[in-house]
Amino acid sequence: MPKKIAAFGEVMMRLQVPGHDLLSQSNMLRYSFSGTGVNVLSALANFGHTGCLISRLPHNPVGDAAATELRGLGISTEFLQRGGDYMGMYFLENGFGVRPGRVTYTNRLESSFNTAPEGTYDYGGIAQSIAAIHFCGITLAMNDAVRSHMKALALAVKAQGGLVIFDSNYRASLWGAEGHTRAKPYYEDMLKLADIVMMTEKDALWTLGMSTDKEGRKAQLEELIPAVADEYGIKVIAGTHREIHGDNSHSLLGYIYKDQSLVFADPLRFSVYDRIGAGDAYASGIIHGELEGWPAEQTVRFAAVAGMLAHTISGDTPKASEGDILRAMTEAVGDVER
User: In terms of pLDDT, which residue wins out, 272 or 236?
Assistant: First the structure.
């Protein structure tokens, strides 16, 4: 049955250069609102769940526009707070072929979300009304106040018997010179509370400081992911391996570790229209499958196709319904639907 799911995270204003131009080439930008939590909840709303964002927006026309867009995405704003003066923004330049995409953040640390004081959120009230809550490592990197909100919310949800979902989403630029060393204790705190985790073997090696003598990413994954699940008591760990080809197409291999078994989806290769947010689409597929009680094989195939379809639309937020994804899992795609 559909569930009520919350996500704790920042709403960002995305300012995108048209096409594949650089910022230095264009005098035009298209804006929209996104964020990891926004993307995951939007996808889950498309699957029939009720998604509620826990965040804080400035009390000005920019915050009003963001709240309007959230509602348009099917996201409930019942836990949304207003206050502060700024919204974090990022500029996006789309990559092409061997040139990677580039994201430039601005004004983020002073945003309404990242300056929310103690007492902003009703942890206990929120926990009583939801079945699961989603967090990400990007939010974890912000500051001590945000980390305090995260841990308090996670503990409150666990106390009510809800699921805690954590997407590692490590971003080196957000953790400063100390990088993984600084991040490790905070990641360990969240992993000990999490039921469902999105991560790769790189997170285990670099952030958690684990070791392996295996060579090759898949072999390392097969050794390290079960070890992480055992060490931190995690029920489900999932993620992807991506390969980028010279013709601007990508290959995606999805995996899930559950019940002491590592299951892989069939590799997918596809053209890319917009890469940002595709990882969130994959995560939403894993969450949906787990909430619906699907077998691991079905969940990971569904999540991989959800991620693939997210590459085919503009903007961060996934648009595919459950039916769209199930159809793409079983039918040839690409022709006009009539």
Answer: 236
Mind listing the pLDDT tens digit for each residue in 138-163?
999 999 999 999 999 999 999 999 99
272 band by pLDDT with thresholds 50, 70 and 90: confident
Residue 15, φ and ψ in degrees, nearest 5: -115, 105
Rounded Cα distance, 266 and 234, in Å: 24
